[in-house]
């Protein structure tokens, strides 16, 4: 039986390394980084939530977000606060079997990869299915509802990696094959958009 998965997209940061550019609004193909993330998430779930913080009004004015938007007024304290706040919001509306955490600056994370995460989460009965990185595990990652109380209790400075580490015996890792690249500088953005454009010409 398919499991119900809510997707929580963490997009509250201020993009401090982007020299004044609002990362969530950077063009990606015919859309933006944030809209691209939402589009791929909608390919695997009908329950999509986006946590915004920095530049909240500007982002909402600039793009159409086909998802439920959550405003984290405490975004400056760290990603853990967005996870906690976002999950509490979700649980007021539904009781999913799991929640998938994503970020808005990994534009190569597509529907096919997200589907693979969900398939492994459903078939392996793992508490966590996460993306493999050279230095450990990270997002996108799906957390079983048995871990929701701990996700809700995350402190501001600690993201979900703390919980992944705690339950490492129960983590299923998926190789992203390069899709995990995130845009953290203007140079990385220019590099990735050049590759992306070349592939689609």
Task: Kindly report the spatial arrangement of strands forming the biggest sheet.
Answer: 5-4-1-6-8-7-9
What name goes with the CATH superfamily? Spore Coat Polysaccharide Biosynthesis Protein SpsA, Chain A
Ends distance: 40 Å
Number of helical elements: 7
Give the C-alpha Rg: 16 Å
Q: Unreliable segments (pLDDT under 50, ≥5 consecutive)? A: none
CATH fold group: Spore Coat Polysaccharide Biosynthesis Protein SpsA, Chain A
Structural class: alpha/beta
- Outline, from the CA principal axes? globular
CATH architectural designation: Alpha-Beta Complex
Strand count, sense and barrel status of the largest sheet are: 7 strands, mixed
Descriptive overview:
The protein has 201 residues and is an alpha/beta fold. The chain has a single domain, classed as Spore Coat Polysaccharide Biosynthesis Protein SpsA, Chain A, CATH 3.90.550.10. Helix content is 34%, strand content 23%. It has helices at residues 33-42, 56-62, 79-91, 111-124, 148-152, 161-166, 186-199, and strands at 5-11, 27-28, 31-32, 47-52, 68-71, 98-103, 128-133, 136-144, 171-174. A hairpin with a 2-residue loop joins strand 2 and strand 3. The radius of gyration is 16 Å and the shape is globular.
